[in-house]
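Appendix B. Raw example, untouched.
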Amino acid sequence: MNQNIYGQRYDLSYLNQVFQGNREMIDNIIRLFLQQVPEYIKEMEECVRKNEPLSLHPLAHKAKSSVSMLGIKDMEHDILKIESDSKHLRNLDELPNLVSRVKENCQVVYTQLTQQLQRAS
């Protein structure tokens, strides 16, 4: 499947500003995202499967900063909602769909960021 039909889902403006365009530092943040966030999402899916909404909160919290730094706005919105709703046990029926949407988004972003790293090297 051609991932480009989705358009670029991330925005490196924040990282470029913080690291003053230092490619090595930006690439390190991207690699960290690629290593950690898919794992957090896998764990979130497991929490949904086991119906353990309170366990979602710390995972969403951990993923939030990476998603935010990479400017993945639609994913950030869903992560914040998962974090808040699971912590306060609200809208529990929406959590499986939110986690699923975050996973789909992450798969697209993962491909895009991997291509970004390949272009940068």
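End of appendix B.
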